[in-house]
Amino acid sequence: MVVELRDRNRILPRLYEDFVTYVEEISLIEEKYLWQNVRIYVNDQNSCQEFLILRLAVSPKRKNISVYMTAESSATVQTFSDVLKEKKKINVHVQTTTREAHIRQFMPWLTKSYTVRYCCATSTSFQPHCQHQEKAIRLTAENIKQFNLSASPLFIKRLKTAPVYGYVNEHKELIATSGVGFLTKKSFGISYTETRPEYRCQGIAKCLTSLASEPLIKKGLIGIYAADITNQPSLRVARGLGFQPYRDLKCFYN
Which of 10, 69, 127, 189 could, after both became Cys, cross-link 242 (CB 3.0–4.6 A)? Predict the structure, then answer.
C-alpha cells in the first residue's frame, strides 16, 4: 500500500544507500529551501524501498513536475501511476530505475524518453583543469545581477551555499557557467553547465567545473556529473576531469 510520507527525513537512510544516483533527491531534502510543493510517496514507510518523489516548479508560463521514482513491483508502479494521472496534463518529467515496460504499461502518456549517464569522481580519479582560470570568476549573490538580471531567487540562494563559476569575455559578458547544483553530506552534483555556442570546445566548461569540484573533492565528497548519453561534448568534459561512468537512468516525459 502506497502512503504519503510526511516526515521527509525518514527517507534519507534509504537514499544514502546510493548517494551517487540519488544526489539530487538527498540535496532537495537536506537543503530545505529547495523544497517547494514537494510530496513523497512510499510503499512502506518503515523501509522506503520503493518511492515516488514529486517536486512542482511553477514559472510564469507553465507548471512542471519533476519526479524521481524507484519501484520494482508492477503493483507499486501502478499505484504510483495513479498519483501521477491527475497531473498528466502538466509537463511531467520522470527519472526512474523502474523497468521501461512498466512505464509503458502504466504511464503511456509519457511518450518521450532519453537516457542520462551518471558519472562520479573521487579524490583518486579527479583530474583538475587549470586552463582559462584567469577569466573565471566565482559567482555570488552580490555580483550575479551584473551578468544575469533574470537570475532566479533559488539560483541566488544556491550561490550562497555552493560554488558556481562563470567565464567572462573581453566585453565583460558572462559566456559560460558551471558549478554545484546539488550538495549533500557525502556528495555533490554538477549543474548550471552552459557555454555560448561560439565559445564551445575550448575547455572553458571543463575549467569552471574543475574550479567548482576540486575544493569539495579535497574534503572527501564524491562528485557527480550527469548528462544525456547523446551529449558527447558534455560527457567529454566529465571524462577529462576524471568523472567515471557509474550508471545510466531512463527518463520519461510528455
Answer: 127
